[in-house]
Amino acid sequence: MTQVRSELTRYLRTETFGGALLLIAAAGALIWVNSPWGAGYTTMIDTKLAIPALHLDLTLADWTKDGLLAIFFFVAGLELKRELTIGELADRKSAALPIIAALGGVLMPALIAMTVGWGVPGMDRGWAIPVATDIAFALAVLALTGSRIPPSARVFLLSLAVVDDLIAIILIAILFTTTLQMFWLLAAVLCFAAWWLGQKYRVSTPILYVPIALLAWYALHEAGIHPTLAGVGLGLLTRVHPDPDEDEHSVPAANLEHFFQPISAIVCVPLFALFASGVPLDSKIFSELFTDRLALSIVLGLLVGKTVGIFGFGWAAVRLGIAHKPNDLGYRDMFALSVLGAIGFTVSLLVAELALSGLGDDSAVELAKAAVLLTSLAASLAGSALLLRRGRVHQAIRDERALQEQE
Description:
Blueprint: H1 2-33, H2 38-46, E1 48-51, E2 56-59, H3 60-85, H4 92-116, H5 123-126, H6 135-145, H7 151-175, H8 182-200, H9 206-223, H10 229-236, H11 252-276, H12 283-288, H13 293-319, H14 331-340, H15 346-356, H16 363-406
Antiparallel strand pairs: 1-2
């Protein structure tokens, strides 16, 4: 248990720092694209970095979306595997609350987005834009403004976001796989099998795993499946439990997470934010945010759907006896965390690119990105205000208890 808690603390600290870099990168992209030098930003993201021999004709923006985010999803897969086996989600009663809350945080935004955006071009898949909570962004805000609330709040938010991302990953696989190339799909399956066998027979050399990972990514790309799913699959197939004669720190999942999580949080996600957040903001965009049904479906899906879904489903699960709520986590704390759940950044931007990029021009993508960015900012500010208020309440309770003990 001590090892699990120390791993959780390390994970939270890394994600918090990465979240701060994410915010800086996103702000930098917005300032750059809306400056007199905005053409340079467009040139940068559209620059081709092709590998003709492999039939990969991708721009730098595509490489960050398809390549760097695969590392992000690999870390998410590792963390999910750890949570499901030895972490907070290993205990059914403790896992029920964040899992049910996450389900609510997916169903309600999707329902609102489909209702508001019904018939709008691209909304046949665009309803999935507001379903994901950004782990790094939300944890960064929590670290900055929620330092005085109970530690169980961080565990709840992390577990919620991990389950949330898993559901978003499944949706990406279902919604954005149009045509399947069976040969390459079989090649990807063989790569996953080779990774699993390597883990089973305790092979530790990167000479085996690096080629498998690269081939799995390429095979999924060629199969017509979004290649970031290779990261999730390999993460979930990585061994978490130590052998009897093995130190807990040398387990493959722990080693890989220690190595890749800083790369993901400090390099991959901020770079993706830099390449994906450059949205020209003008009066037309701002007016459409409150009138266009595509934008409204995202704004209402995130702000209303996420908050109501996470808190409502979590509250109902506790009241019905399905889930257990930590004693030090109040319902008002849960509501504040539910507002933070409306921060849909990395995965929401990715889904916006995937769902709307084929509509003929980039106006729908830019509008959707603007809706995600500004709604995430609003959710972070509202959540911060609520967390600061709850922090003062918890601090007052601790001060009163300390005074009573002294007496």
